[in-house]
Structure to design on (320 residues):
């Protein structure tokens, strides 16, 4: 009898963890409240899923003025950390649409519920960059900020949005149009204020994702470490064939850039970590193209370019 009672309460407890709960809150604005727009929404994202978001499957709520409140009902788990994100699509999906997050992210539910979640909405953001270097001095360091909206919504490679010099290891880039971003730090070796193939570079990465949500309520410092130990080899590399693959990690498409000075043809091949070839193509002259993996699992891949008896290799991490 007592055994049955214990089992009954254990089952009830398990079901209480799985039963649908509600997360509710509201928007506040650091920019002007829009008077006309196409859609406003709030969504809940698992922290563990932030690097491979499927927007079509997120629990969401439509948000409307004047109170800008939301209520989202779904299966929420108390042992899971969540982000609350929101946005307003003015006319098209593009950088600068007002977006925001709950500034105390991440948060947990209690019995599947959470209330009073404030999502701070803004259309521009200041990003604080903390860049450090190893194997070389901190000079001629720049940051590239990429718009990741094409990747999120169309499966296209992210596009370069802004390049700014970093005069110090801790520096704030102001008035970034709101939206998901990639942040890349590089050393400008030839003084043209842009990233060239094989110049040392590094993307921001975190345990969850290399995506930066540059939106209202985001106040984290973006930390990037740049290895300059290969700078002495840069001239001999740039005079021959060169290969760049970015971003890494990526979750839908990676850009591959090949430079073939004085060489007309090359072979590009991509291998998985076991050595199996997943792509083989000819490259005619210097070129740039996206790689969109199909039918292959997530993991580390090796990109080789061979020409004139020489091979260059880069590694790239594919995540979902």
């Amino acid at each position: 009898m007592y055994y049955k009672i214990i089992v009954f309460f254990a089952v009830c407890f398990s079901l209480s963890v799985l039963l649908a709960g509600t997360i509710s809150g509201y928007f506040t604005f650091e920019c002007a409240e829009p008077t006309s727009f196409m859609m406003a929404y709030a969504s809940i994202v698992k922290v563990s899923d932030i690097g491979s978001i499927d927007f079509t499957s997120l629990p969401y709520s439509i948000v409307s003025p004047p109170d800008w409140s939301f209520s989202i009902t779904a299966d929420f788990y108390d042992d899971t950390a969540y982000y609350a994100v929101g946005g307003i699509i003015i006319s098209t999906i593009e950088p600068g649409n007002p977006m925001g997050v709950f500034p105390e992210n991440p948060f947990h539910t209690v019995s599947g519920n959470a209330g009073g979640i404030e999502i701070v909405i803004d259309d521009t953001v200041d990003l604080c960059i903390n860049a450090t270097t190893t194997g070389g001095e901190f000079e001629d360091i720049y940051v590239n900020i990429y718009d990741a909206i094409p990747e999120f919504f169309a499966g296209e490679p992210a596009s370069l949005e802004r390049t700014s010099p970093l005069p110090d290891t801790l520096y704030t880039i102001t008035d970034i149009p709101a939206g998901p971003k990639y942040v890349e730090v590089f050393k400008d070796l030839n003084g043209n204020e842009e990233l060239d193939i094989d110049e040392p570079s590094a993307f921001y990465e975190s345990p969850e994702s290399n995506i930066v949500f540059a939106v209202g309520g985001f106040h984290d410092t973006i930390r990037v470490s740049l290895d300059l130990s290969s700078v002495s080899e840069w001239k001999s590399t740039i005079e021959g064939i060169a290969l760049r693959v970015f971003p890494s990690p990526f979750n839908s498409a990676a850009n591959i850039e090949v430079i073939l000075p004085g060489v007309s043809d090359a072979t590009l091949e991509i291998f998985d970590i076991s050595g199996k070839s997943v792509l083989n193509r000819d490259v005619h002259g210097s070129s740039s193209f996206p790689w969109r993996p199909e039918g292959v699992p997530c993991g580390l891949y090796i990109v080789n370019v061979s020409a004139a008896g020489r091979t260059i290799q880069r590694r790239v991490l594919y995540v979902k």
Notes: The longest strand covers residues 124-134. The longest helix spans residues 2-18. The radius of gyration is 23 Å.
